[in-house]
């Protein structure tokens, strides 16, 4: 009896220490009531910690490559969080049982709180800005000013492939603020109503049938063909045109037209064929509509069919006042049997528009040495883009005979076109105001197809610039060496005294030879020189000054004005007049000081330029001067240093030192 008693006591004491509640004091040892080995909870030998550490989920062992980042993050959290007094854990705890389903979904249901309050994508960042002066009374602005502001802020309504920008919802919210905002927001929406997707077009058409008031305010229609005009639930285009009697511009497009330079996008419209109906132009003539802008798309049916329709439509009365025309996706093979007929239809269609001023030709290999000289001489704006076969010789042939009236020239992504025409640009286009060149190329159908198909960008020498230029924007200027780059920038500096209207200079050049030291010396010399010559460094005008620079009424001015007004009369109006005069005097003094400071800066710059090389003329009228020179390979998305940095800077000094 004595030998078995200690054994039972030890056995009972061991069971009591392993249980979880006080109700087990009455425990009678029995093998049937003991839990199985698989259901027993394993003992934990962790030290006591606070509640925050107990709530942290268990994480697996970090990988060797991620260990340093985890250490830095953990160190930053410990350094940022305030220390809490540790509380001892009670000796006896209750463990709630969970089902297998709850245990699996627990990491997704309950997540660890964010103690550092880091940036979250759904939370916008608000930067407090100082007051910039007097806030205008927006409700009292005229309708013409408000609609210009709202259209500038809201357009465009859609991004590439029909993705909404949120501007429609924003205009609807703005229109609910006041009556004046409602009229302006409604006008901005009706000027070019958003008709995509299909439910929005049907709702808008039903609204126009019920209410005739907004009909006269619609001037432009942008209609997505594959979604709105093709299919069983498509809208009736003729019914829509009956509700817009004052229509001036219409654009029939496909959402994939923005990616027309990609080869795979040329086959999308084959599943949904659509062609320009003859009833469309009959409706225009019956309603006495005189279009001012139109866009032809060769992908909607076939290029040769659209050219035949275009040639017949341009002789109608509805196209007699066309001023802006866009041709998209008219490409033919070099040995195509349809090419001669297409060239003839193109020339007859263009010459049938006597009032044509602006012409945009996008992704059209039809424009070649035969059709380029046939463009009308009355053009003031010309845009050529995504033409892989277009050469500088074709453009020179047009500019020699038809470039006298040209005021805007835009050339983008023409892979075979050099800049040889710039050598005689001042002589061929004396009225040119806006020059935009983009020498970046992209073709995902083939690897390494971003290089130009010409040897030298300026084979005939340095360029000449028209004196009437207002903006110069050249992106990815390539195929030039160090000496040609110096000649290029020197031509701009030499032309500075004649640039009376130049306000924008943006040039990004890619130097193809030379060491990094030579490129660095070229950057240090010409970037600072062009900024010194062209950049406007005077203080901005007609902009409210910040609070620190805002003229204030000093105590002496107030005392003087108050004593003078009390001596003459006690009228409150005269006292306020004296105060106003004191403020105006102080404002005039500040303006004189600013003019004197800017004049001194210009004089110092002129003296420095004369001492450097004798080129002392300072243009100083450009609000934007952006010059970049490198040898990097161009890309649609240019990565910089900030793309490779962490979201939050590390505070681990030991890690940085090591």
TrEMBL record:
Biased composition (Basic and acidic residues): 578-608
Residue ranges, compositional bias (Acidic residues): 644-658
Compositional bias (Low complexity): 554-571
Superkingdom, taxonomy of origin: Eukaryota
Organism this protein belongs to: Cyphellophora attinorum
InterPro entries per UniProt: LRR_dom_sf
Composition skew (Polar residues), residue ranges: 629-638
Protein name per UniProt: Uncharacterized protein
Region (Disordered): 1-115, 540-615, 629-658
Bias-annotated ranges (Basic residues): 84-96
């Amino acid at each position: 009896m004595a030998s078995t008693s200690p054994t039972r006591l030890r056995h009972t004491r061991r069971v009591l220490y392993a249980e979880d509640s006080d109700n087990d004091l009455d425990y009678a040892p029995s093998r049937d009531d003991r839990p199985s080995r698989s259901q027993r909870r394993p003992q934990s030998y962790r030290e006591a910690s606070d509640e925050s550490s107990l709530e942290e989920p268990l994480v697996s062992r970090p990988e060797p490559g991620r260990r340093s980042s985890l250490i830095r993050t953990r160190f930053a959290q410990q350094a940022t969080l305030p220390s809490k007094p540790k509380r001892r854990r009670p000796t006896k705890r209750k463990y709630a049982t969970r089902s297998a389903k709850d245990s699996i979904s627990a990491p997704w249901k309950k997540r660890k709180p964010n103690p550092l309050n880091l940036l979250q994508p759904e939370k916008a960042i608000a930067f407090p800005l100082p007051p910039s002066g007097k806030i205008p009374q927006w409700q009292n602005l005229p309708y013409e000013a408000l609609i210009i502001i709202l259209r500038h802020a809201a357009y465009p309504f859609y991004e590439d492939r029909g993705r909404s920008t949120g501007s429609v919802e924003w205009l609807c919210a703005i229109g609910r603020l006041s009556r004046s905002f409602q009229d302006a927001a409604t006008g901005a929406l009706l000027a070019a109503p958003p008709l995509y997707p299909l439910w929005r077009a049907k709702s808008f058409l039903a609204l126009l049938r019920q209410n005739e008031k907004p009909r006269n305010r619609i001037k432009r229609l942008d209609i997505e063909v594959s979604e709105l005009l093709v299919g069983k639930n498509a809208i009736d285009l003729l019914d829509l045109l009956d509700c817009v009697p004052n229509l001036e511009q219409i654009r029939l497009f496909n959402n994939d037209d923005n990616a027309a330079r990609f080869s795979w996008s040329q086959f999308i419209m084959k599943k949904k064929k659509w062609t320009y109906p003859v009833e469309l132009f009959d409706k225009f003539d019956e309603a006495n509509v005189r279009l001012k802008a139109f866009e032809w798309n060769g992908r909607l049916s076939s290029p040769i069919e659209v050219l035949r329709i275009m040639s017949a439509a341009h002789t109608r009365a509805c196209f007699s006042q066309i001023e802006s025309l866009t041709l998209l996706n008219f490409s033919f093979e070099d040995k195509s049997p349809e090419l001669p007929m297409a060239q003839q239809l193109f020339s007859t269609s263009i010459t049938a528009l006597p009032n044509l001023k602006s012409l945009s030709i996008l992704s059209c290999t039809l424009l070649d040495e035969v059709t380029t000289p046939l463009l009308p001489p009355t053009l003031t704006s010309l845009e050529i883009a995504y033409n892989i076969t277009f050469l500088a010789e074709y453009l020179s042939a047009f500019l020699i005979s038809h470039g006298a009236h040209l005021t805007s020239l835009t050339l983008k992504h023409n892979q075979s076109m050099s800049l040889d025409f710039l050598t005689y640009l001042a002589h061929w286009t004396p009225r040119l105001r806006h020059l935009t060149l983009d020498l970046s190329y992209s073709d995902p159908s083939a690897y390494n197809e971003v290089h130009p198909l010409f040897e030298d960008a300026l084979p005939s020498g340095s360029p000449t610039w028209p004196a009437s230029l207002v903006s110069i924007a050249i992106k990815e200027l390539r195929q030039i060496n160090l000496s040609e780059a110096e000649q290029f920038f020197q031509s701009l500096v030499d032309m500075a005294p004649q640039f009376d209207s130049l306000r924008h200079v943006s040039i990004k050049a890619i130097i193809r030879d030379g060491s990094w030291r030579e490129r660095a010396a070229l950057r240090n010399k010409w970037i600072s020189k062009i900024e010194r010559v062209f950049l406007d460094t005077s203080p901005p005008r007609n902009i409210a000054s910040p609070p620190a620079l805002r003229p204030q009424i000093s105590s002496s001015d107030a005392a003087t004005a108050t004593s003078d007004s009390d001596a003459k009369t006690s009228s409150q109006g005269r006292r306020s007049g004296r105060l106003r005069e004191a403020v105006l005097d102080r404002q005039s003094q500040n303006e004189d000081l600013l003019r004197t400071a800017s004049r001194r800066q210009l004089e110092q710059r002129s003296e420095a330029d004369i001492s450097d090389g004798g080129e002392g003329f300072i243009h100083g009228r450009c609000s934007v001067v952006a010059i970049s020179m490198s040898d990097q390979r161009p890309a649609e998305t240019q990565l910089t240093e900030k793309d490779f940095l962490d979201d939050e800077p590390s505070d681990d000094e030991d890690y940085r030192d090591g």
